[in-house]
Design brief:
Length: 132
């Protein structure tokens, strides 16, 4: 009988620990995702990782608190992260990210080239037209 009581006591202790861990996890998740002012979108900022050679970057989500699908991710230098290269982001997102130290291009396109700065000696420029 004594062993059974000890077992029940241990089960209750583990349940209490599990409940506290769940509550802490929810509290931390709320702190992890920040809403983008003026929108229904949110973001999570991940730190630089020298082992994987990734910059500090942000993942942007469709809904508050990291909900919905991921819209894009952007590196601190304004380049696309995780396949988001070429994505044009909303001006409100760009303003928010710039306030956080991200270098978002003026044209709002992640990893884009400024047409005027291209040197004809280095690049061949082809303009494709759908009407052809």
């Amino acid at each position: 009988m004594k062993r059974f009581k000890e077992f029940l006591k241990e089960v209750k202790l583990n349940e209490s620990k599990e409940k506290k861990l769940t509550e802490l996890s929810l509290a931390l998740e709320h702190q992890t995702y920040k809403n983008i002012s003026g929108t229904q979108n949110s973001l999570r900022i991940d730190p630089q990782n020298t082992s994987t050679l990734t910059q500090r970057h942000a993942h942007v989500y469709a809904k508050p608190n990291g909900g919905g699908k991921q819209l894009y991710s952007v590196n601190l230098d304004g380049s696309g992260h995780d396949g988001s290269s070429g994505t044009v982001i909303p001006a409100s997102h760009a303003d928010h990210l710039r306030r956080l130290g991200f270098e978002i291009p003026v044209n709002l396109a992640l990893e884009s080239l400024d047409f005027e700065s291209l040197s004809p000696e280095l690049y061949e420029i082809c303009i494709l037209d759908d009407d052809v």
